[in-house]
Amino acid sequence: MTGPRPVVLSGPSGAGKSTLLKMLLKDYGNVFGFSVSHTTRQPRVGEVNGKEYHFVTREQMQKEIDAGEFIEHAEFSGNIYGTSKAAVEAVQARNQICVLDIDLQGVKNIKKTDLKPIYISVRAPSIEVLEKRLRDRRTESEESLQKRLNAARIDMELSNEPGLFDLIIVNNDLQKAYSELKEILAEEIQKIQDSKKS
Ligand SMILES: Nc1ncnc2c1ncn2[C@@H]1O[C@H](COP(=O)(O)OP(=O)(O)OP(=O)(O)O)[C@@H](O)[C@H]1O
Ligand SMILES: Nc1nc2c(ncn2[C@@H]2O[C@H](COP(=O)(O)O)[C@@H](O)[C@H]2O)c(=O)[nH]1
């Protein structure tokens, strides 16, 4: 894998990863590119195939995994999610910083590759706040919400492993969280902006 150092955003469902990522892409659309994952979950209202995810069947995804087309994949809340080699390469070919939004299993699997990204953990201030955010988002059934909260409890326990993340952002105040994210990425942003000028 070549090009600028990728960025991994991880953390419990509802912590605010996509929200922070959207802010980053809005402000630095030319600098960052989103690694569009594959998933077997159903699209949410407003989600577009090929933009938020490549929405595929379990059979299709398993076939592509078996063919070695994925850097990592994981089962999360009853569905498979995965990062294809093509998704990362497409961003790197544009000389953009590739941003991956992946769960903790994905982080552990990416650690075994030569991708060498900056690892950032995004967390909510508490499980109660996380639950409120997920409920207010109105994307999950009660069953899915409970599965995600269980996964979040496990994530919150396991993600404290020393050295796993380069930065932990507790996303309480959104603007403050975004400032912290921009701060750790400032050097990489500058490098890309300079290279695009020359
Ligand atoms: N700092 C914040 N304060 C209040 N609400 C927030 C904050 N950050 C994000 N939210 C809201 O919380 C909800 C969950 O955020 P978001 O969808 O970005 O989480 P996520 O980590 O990407 O979740 P998933 O992993 O399920 O995709 C959204 O409705 C978002 O608008
Ligand atoms: N290991 C991977 N995890 C992924 C990938 N794409 C997304 N995710 C994670 O799944 C959950 C749920 O996402 P949602 O869109 O259904 O809310 C969340 O934690 C994502 O970070 C992936 O390619 N690999």
Automatic annotation (TrEMBL):
Cellular component annotations (GO), alphabetically ordered: cytosol; photoreceptor inner segment
Keywords of this entry: ATP-binding, Cytoplasm, Kinase, Nucleotide-binding, Transferase
UniProt key word Kinase: yes
Subcellular localization(s) per the UniProt record: Cytoplasm, Cytosol; Photoreceptor inner segment
GO molecular function list: ATP binding; GMP kinase activity
EC number: 2.7.4.8
Keyword Translocase assigned: no
InterPro entries: GK/Ca_channel_bsu (IPR008145), Guanylate_kin-like_dom (IPR008144), Guanylate_kinase (IPR017665), Guanylate_kinase_CS (IPR020590), P-loop_NTPase (IPR027417)
SMART domains: GuKc
Catalysed conversion reaction: GMP + ATP = GDP + ADP
Domain Guanylate kinase-like per the UniProt entry, residue ranges: 4-186
GO annotation terms (biological process): dGDP biosynthetic process; xenobiotic metabolic process
Family: Belongs to the guanylate kinase family.
The protein's assembly and partners: Monomer. Interacts with RD3.
Protein name according to UniProt: Guanylate kinase
Gene designation per UniProt: GUK1
